[in-house]
Write a structure and sequence with these properties.
AKR_Detox_Biosynth, eight-stranded parallel beta barrel, TIM Barrel, 317 residues, oxidoreductase, NADP_OxRdtase_dom, globular, oxidoreductase activity, AKR
Length: 317
Amino acid sequence: MTIDNLKIPTVALGTWAWGDSGETGDGYFGSPLTRAGLEEAADKAHTAGFTLWDTAVVYGMGRSETVLGEVLKRYARSDYQLSTKFTPQAAGAGDDPVAEMLEQSLARLGTDYIDLYWIHNPADVARWTPSLIPLLRSGKVKHVGVSNHNLSEIKLADQILGEAGFRVEAIQNHYSLLYRGSEDAGILDYCRNRGIPFFAYMVLEQGALSGRYNPENPLPEGTKRAQAYNGMLLQLKALTDKLASIGQSQGAAAPDVAIAWAIAKGTTPIIGVTKPNYIDGLVRAASIRLSSNHIAELEALADAAGVNTRGWWEKQM
């Protein structure tokens, strides 16, 4: 069975924060996003050639998919790629929860196919993975991947799909300078050896690596990310200072360098896009070339910070 190759961008566009209700303090980022602002960001991304959008049912329980679908109506369907996810922990009780959740996603996104469909978290690989096969056969899903799976779970999913003539075509895990579990566990090598794209999320650790925040100017109080990161901003200062100084020498900013690091490691970063000017940073990041010395320096400073940014939803890789 032939598989059309997935077009892998340098950077994918994340819409986790698009699920916020817009009420301050409500939703993950408590961010007042406007439809006009998101359309402007999408237009800028489109012009710059960033066309893969990543979302999930559980981002705002459908709100992210709905908003994304409305924003993307401006373009021909062939002009962008959609990535969304089946989350076992949110599965319904019907006969085929994966197909049912996919149908809901298709309706919200206003499309009849998904370019890249993920099993979001590993609840029971042997139970959920086979449900992807009829969706691939039907054409409603073009490619499949697994997210937050460890190496043995990835191999089991690949084996199940392989028996039907398909395969795991992408991996998506939390991966940043501060959290390199997928590298330590051999998942990056596994992907490299098999030509499987690895999508890295939380590359900027929700802004903690953007250089924008420090103990004097912490992340916005009352948000979940403030709870997670404000206590470690002092330990991160040497690293964010180094990101900024490397950036300065290349006409770029600290977050651009953190993204460039993830690209240099052979991954496709998924970067949350909420403002049009974020796209300028992605363009800069894609053009930065980091020396092996820079990479080693950044990783040493990240290790020296001694922080653990594993998400509450993640198990050890």
